[in-house]
Structure formats: C-alpha cells, structure tokens
Amino acid sequence: MKVKEILTKILLIEIFKGLALTLKMLFSKSVTVQYPFEKRNIHEGFRGRHALVRDPISGDDKCIGCMRCTTVCPSRCIHIKREKRENKMVVIDYIIDASRCVYCAYCVEACPVCALVLTEDYEYSSYERKGLIFNKEKLLKNWDEFSAKWPADYYFNKFWQPPGIDPSRWPKTKREQGPVPLKRGVEIKREVKNEQLPS
Fold first, then answer.
1. Contact 140, 93 (CB under 8 A)
2. Among 62, 128, 132, 177, which is most buried by a count of CB atoms within 10 Å?
3. Model-level pTM?
4. What is the pLDDT of residues 48-103, one digit of tens each?
5. DSSP alpha helices (H): ranges in the chain?
6. Is 158 helix (H, G, I), strand (E, B) or coil?
7. Rounded-to-5 percentages of helix, strand, coil across the chain
8. 8 Å CB contact between 44 and 118
9. In sequence order, which residues have a C-beta less than 8 Å from that of residue 81 and are 6 or more positions away?
C-alpha cells in the first residue's frame, strides 16, 4: 500500500467527501416539483390521454373505420366495432384500453383522417381498470374536456403530419389537415402544415 492510500483510509477522506456533498445538496435549490400545486410545462408532442377528434362541422367523430390504428398498434389495445350502412362504413364503437397502451402514437400517425389524438392531458387516473377503458362516447368526452382547457383557439398535433415522411406519400385528407378549431364561432383554417426535410 502506498502512503497516500494509507492516509486516505486513516483520515476517512472518502467519508468526508460524501458528507460534504450531502451538506452542499442540503442548501441547494430543490428540483422537486410540488405537484399538484406546481405543474411543469407540457412540451409539444406530449402523449397523454386518448381522444377522438370531434369534427368541427358535423360535431361527430371523424373516424372512418379504416382499421389502420388497430393494425399498427403494437400492444393491441384498440378495438373497433363497425358495420356497413348504405355503402358506407359506420363506426359503432371505438374502444381503447389505456392500461395496455404504450403511448407510441403509431395509431395517430397511421390515421388517414387525423381522427385520433393523444392529448397533452396527463391528469387522469383510476382505481379500477374499467376507468382506463375508453369507449367512443368517453373518447369524444375526453376531446371536449381537453379542448375546453386548451389555451389557444386552434389545436394541431405534431403526429398528424409526422416529420421525416415525404408529404406526397400521405393520404389527401392528411395532407390537407390544418389546425382544428376548438371554440364555437372560430373560422376553420384551411392551411396545410407540411414539414419537409431538406434534401
């Protein structure tokens, strides 16, 4: 053993270094957020509670029952009940089991009509599993609650038109999707938000 190692062991240098760090942290500013009194700012693209987007014109959901979301879902938590009426596919029920969801947002990206969204709402919980199973009515209610709290008049989710994909490969409805008006009487914007990568 070297003299330096012997002195370090005898004088308990490592213990004093640890105590000094503890003392330093004792008087430093706390990094803990005192939730629910303090809340962090939500970043764009946060994936929270599921919702079906309400069509601002008809007032109903925009889902066309194409089943792309159920096909792409890795956790198989989406179930759609549909039937054909007058040569048109009608969605009878749309069920999402949020307790199985991995919040990957593949369903939002795959939807050709931007009917589904993972909202920025994270304040939802349940003591029972059935409280985390959302049917069509609950998903529309989730949208109404989210849109009532959203500070702006319009909402646009970044996963509706994901960057990195050539917009010419998107369906026409996805290319033409603009911000959704949330308040009554707000004019519908027909802007196309295309984020193209530099070639």
1. no
2. 177
3. 0.75
4. 999 999 988 888 899 999 999 999 999 999 999 999 888 888 899 999 999 999 99
5. 3-10, 13-26, 68-72, 106-110, 136-149, 172-175
6. coil
7. 30, 15, 55
8. no
9. 91, 92, 93, 94, 95
Token reading at 26: 């004792």
Buried b (16+ CB within 10 A) or exposed e, 158-193: ebbbbeeeeeeebeeebeebbbbbbeeeeeeeeeee
For the chain, give the mean pLDDT.
86
Report in angstroms the alpha-carbon separations of 199 from 100, 159, 164. Answer: 38, 21, 11
CATH tag, 50-181 = 3.30.70.3270
* The dihedral formed by the CA atoms of 125, 129, 130 and 134, expressed in degrees to the nearest 10: 60
